[in-house]
Amino acid sequence: MNNVENKVRDIVASAPDPREDELTKTIERYTAAIPSSVYLAVGVGAAVLALGAQLAGGGKWGNFVASWVPTWLIIGLYNKVVKLEGHDKTDAGK
To answer: pTM for the complete prediction?
Structure first.
């Protein structure tokens, strides 16, 4: 049993540090100031712009702008998750 305990202790000791670096903290501090609804609005705006371009006959331009929609929505989702479950919970008191 001692061998198993030593292996578990080694695995726990070699686990990566869950804290974020200073660059990530700085970026998250600035982006957290932007409401998540802004990212949603930009995503919806890109969808409307893409639809308008498609209807106006700009197929390639419409497809290009349409590719922005999931990007902005996932950035907004990341922003929301960071606000709710961000690094500050694991860095508390350090």
So the answer is: 0.64
